[in-house]
Amino acid sequence: MDLGLKGKRAAVTGGTRGIGRAIVDTLAHEGATIAFCARNADGVRSAESDLVARGGTAHGFTVDAGDQAAVARFVDQAAEVLGGLDVVVANVSAMAIADTPEAWRQSIEIDILGTVALCRAALPHLAKSHGSIVVIGTVSTMEVAGPPQPYRSVKAALVPYIKSLAVEWAAKGVRANIVSPGTIYFEGGVWQRIEQGAPQMYQQSLARNPMGRMGTPQEVANAAVFLASPAASFITGTNLVVDGGITRRVQY
After folding, report:
1. CATH class assigned to 9-240
2. What is the mean pLDDT of residues 101-108?
3. Distances (CA, A) of 167 to 67, 172, 188, 192, 236
4. What's 193-248 look like in SS3?
5. 147: how many CB neighbours lie within 10 A of its CB?
């Protein structure tokens, strides 16, 4: 299937590793030009060099996703270097697990306020191109496992926000969707750390999945890039679960 992304202009937050990097690579493979950001300057430079060496058009920016003004500047810089925007992907998360005031504050600033700042800055650009927003969520908003944590509660707030954007901006040609991954394993990721530091918890989570395995960043990227693309032109306001069947709820 031709996703219709050749020549499209995409901005991705958290694009140097894990799911974000897989999204950047997949967009580039589909022929899109990319602007991406992350907090670590060395990681940004390395990813940009790698993408360019493979023939892609990529521009990396060092951005703290908890700084709303910096996030908005990133969007405008991305639109400037790319000549506009067709796709914006909000991938950054604080991944805050500890039930502490600092973890809650960080999660709110990055996951909610950073995402809102990204969308608010991107919408005028996307209205010009009839583009799309994709936010990376989590299945943790759907089923509770373990003690209270900021991550799942804060991510849950994004679901009605994105649905509201989808309804409000549909007449202007802008689509907005969420992709909610389940347990996704990659080097340096949270599940590798759990595997190494809490092997019993890792095995319990692995056993819960009917597929008997965890997912890969590429499997999430495939879903996110499809939703972002013109091939998904009549899909907006949805929350696409990519979890191998680990959640048991019935989604109507």
Report:
1. alpha beta
2. 96
3. 27, 10, 37, 38, 8
4. HHHHHCHHHHHHHHHHCCCCCCECHHHHHHHHHHHHCHHHCCCCCCEEEECCCCCC
5. 8
Render pLDDT for 30-69 as a digit per residue (tens, 0 to 9).
999 999 999 999 999 999 999 999 999 999 999 999 999 9
151 catalytic, yes or no? yes
- The encoded tokens of residue 32 equal 């899109």
Q: Is the pTM of this model over 0.70?
A: yes
Tokens 């960043």 correspond to 217
Helix axis angle for 115-129 and 158-169, nearest 10°, is 20
Residue among 57, 49, 61 at smallest CA distance from 27: 57
The first and second tokens of residue 231, run together, are 């091939």
The residue type found at 72 is A
Mean pLDDT of the chain: 96
Q: Are 34 and 24 in contact (CB under 8 A)?
A: yes
Edge-to-edge strand order for the sheet containing 87-90?
Answer: 58-62, 33-38, 9-13, 87-90, 132-136, 175-181, 239-242
Options 151, 185, 202, 252, the catalytic residue? 151
Q: Which of 17, 130, 145, 125 is nearest to 76 (CA)?
A: 125
Q: Quote the CA–CA distance of 159 and 115 in Å, as a whole number.
A: 12
The rounded radius of gyration (Å) of the Cα atoms in the chain is 17
Across 85-182, where does the E strand assignment appear? 87-90, 132-136, 175-181
